[in-house]
Amino acid sequence: MENLFYPDREEAKNARIKNSCEYEGLVADANDDYEGYWGKLAKEKISWFQEFDEVLDESDAPFYKWFKNGKLNVSYQCIDRHLETRKNKAAIIFEGELGDQKVITYRELYYEVNKTANLLKNKFGISKGDRVVIYMPMIPETAVMMLAVARIGAIHSVVFGGFSADALRDRIIDAEAKLVVTTDGAYRRGKPYLLKPVVDEALSVGCESVEKVLVVERNGEEIHWEAGRDFAYAELVQNESPICEPEVMDSEDPLFLLYTSGSTGKPKGVQHSQAGYILHAQTTMENVFDVRENDTYWCTADVGWITGHTYIVYGPLAMGATTVMFEGVPIYPDAGRWWKMIEEYQVNQFYTAPTAIRLLHKTGAEEPKKYDLSSLRVLGTVGEPINPDAWLWYYNEIGGGKCPIVDTWWQTETGGHMVSPLPFATPIKPGSATNPLPGIFAEIIDENGERMPEGEKGLLCITKPWPSMIRTIWGDPERFKKSYFGDAKKDGKPVYFSGDGAMYDENGYIIITGRTDDVINVSGHRMGTAEIEASIGNHDNVAEVAVVGKPHSVKGESVFAYIVIKSEDNLGEDVELLKEINGIIVKEIGPIAKCDEIVIVPGLPKTRSGKIMRRILRAIVKGEAITQDTSTLEDPSVVEKIQAKF
Ligand code: WTA
Question: Taking a C-beta distance cutoff of 8 angstroms, is the pair 357, 390 a contact?
């Protein structure tokens, strides 16, 4: 078809999945025998200590259990089993913000992880099931720490380094973490910044579960040391034995928690399992990025997000690939930094976010021309819909018009890719994630579970369980059920609601239209409007607030707040109020949640039962017509009064 881009036939000959027939064959296998499909993959791909005896237990749906009674260890899967054939292969290639480089082979990674695992056990008393919060920058020690925690059967919760002390504290308390691992700081935009003081502040109130803090040195800046609580990593780790037997873990034991935003103010601790998670992480690495033995793969995400977990650490290492890790920002010292790195490391697969592509297109459209990007074979995007303009620039200028772009749709909760092209088997199209992967039953349906016709918006749902799915919300199984599984059933099974709207296009491809709940997506960072509203509500002069996403040319969406103030007295300029509000947001959440614009309004549109009609507020900020009936509002005139402000 005319509007599609087809993969190069010569290149496709060497691909893992070579054409659409092979793809359709896999889809048919999964359709015919769903459990058999996943069971076969699990047997082939995982180095089991003891093989599972049942593929899928649905008796307590939606609390599904995959690969029942299987025994394994994820760090063994990611490291030990590669030692026979890949001992001297680069596991991690690291580049620091200042240009410092480090290559860690699988052999070195093995020793580092073992020593660290011993340290966690012996010095810090961490054992199976304990929670360890990792608040660290993009350095190899972060990956080492995650794998060491996994090796001893403990559960990590990585908290993104951009979160504030308050946000970090909430996550520490919710997980009842025993240990926090951090660094003195790191480098950003060429300058050192600090992380340890944030940990000190977080621990100053209410984190009774935390016994110790382990500090990895990164930039040597002066920091406070709390005697008896804080310990330096480098000094201690060298005394530990380089051999640590991996803990025997059950398929369904938790591997990690990762907090993410939902529709309410409180972040959810998304809990992932061992076997199902690592299986999907590994197989999507292989099939979606088509990574081959001698490839160098680079994902620019931060390890603090799910993309960093699955596609910088677990997926690449599980398959024995070489994964690049970069500490810094894409525009330092200039907007050519990433392209320079692609040339330097001869990167074959490059995976990034639309917001970064838009930024680099806008600030350095000519930069890619200065570098040799011919090593690239597959490009990827994730995190938000990509606009065709940015897609075409990425395709032509970065990929030289020859690299398929895999637009991967997935979520923290799905653990790995769900809807995505296979690079050499799926004709691609700007702005579409195309089809569900084999074995993934993603479908666009209406509220009653009926499939939507072409061109009509519906809800993107997953109608069968999948191995890497969220197992529960940490400490809140009821919220897990309520957040993701409504009453709708398909073939007798509860349907998983992603929270995203989508529609089928004329090719039958899936086009994601954005969230349908109160979550906004700023630069690919997922944020709950309720969390931001709670922060803004803490300003003395704010009576009521509603936050919505406003379309933004680089960030995708920006934070926009409608505010009802308590008193006009002492009210300065709007910019002053915005500054004060952002001060609170930065303290309570972090700079990523900062508000771009506010408007002071006389009231918010509410139903008679007091529910804020956000759809109206979203329409107003986008300059769209209001299609809803406003006559049933508590005060219909408020809509006009708000519109008059624009
Ligand atoms: C959005 C990130 C369009 C979507 C892996 C989803 C996307 C949310 C895409 C999850 C894509 C992710 N096209 N939208 N390719 N990928 N999204 O949990 O709204 O940080 O629900 O996981 O990002 O964000 P999360």
Answer: yes
CATH number for the domain formed by residue range(s) 522-643 = 3.30.300.30
CA quadruple 504, 510, 512, 518: dihedral, nearest 10: 80
- Taking CB atoms and a 6 Å cutoff, what residues make up the pocket around ligand 1? 260, 305-307, 382-385, 407-412, 433, 498-500, 512, 515, 521, 526
Q: What is the torsion angle, in degrees rounded to the nearest 10, for the CA atoms of residue 274, residue 112, residue 146 and residue 225?
A: 150
Instruction: List the one residue out of 414, 417, 379 whose CA is nearest residue 399.
Output: 379
pLDDT of residue 567: 85
Cα 438 to Cα 576: distance, rounded to the nearest angstrom? 53
From CA 121, how far away is CA 244, in angstroms rounded? 10
What is the predicted pLDDT for the residue at 1?
Answer: 57
Which residue's alpha carbon is nearest to atom 25 within ligand 1? 411
Q: Whose CA is nearest to atom 22 of ligand 1?
A: 411
Residues of the chain with pLDDT under 50: none
Q: What is the pLDDT of residue 631?
A: 84
Q: What are the Cα distances from residue 532, in Å, to 278, 411, 529, 540, 548? A: 33, 21, 5, 15, 10
Domain boundaries, the chain: 33-329, 442-479+490-515, 522-643
Q: Which CATH superfamily is domain 33-329 in?
A: ANL, N-terminal domain (3.40.50.12780)
Q: Which residue's C-alpha comes closest to atom 24 of ligand 1?
A: 411
Using DSSP, state whether 343 is helix, strand or coil.
Answer: helix
Q: Which of 307, 410, 444 to mutate to test the pocket of ligand 1 (most atoms within 8 A of CB)?
A: 410
C-alpha to C-alpha distance for 355 and 394, rounded to whole angstroms: 12
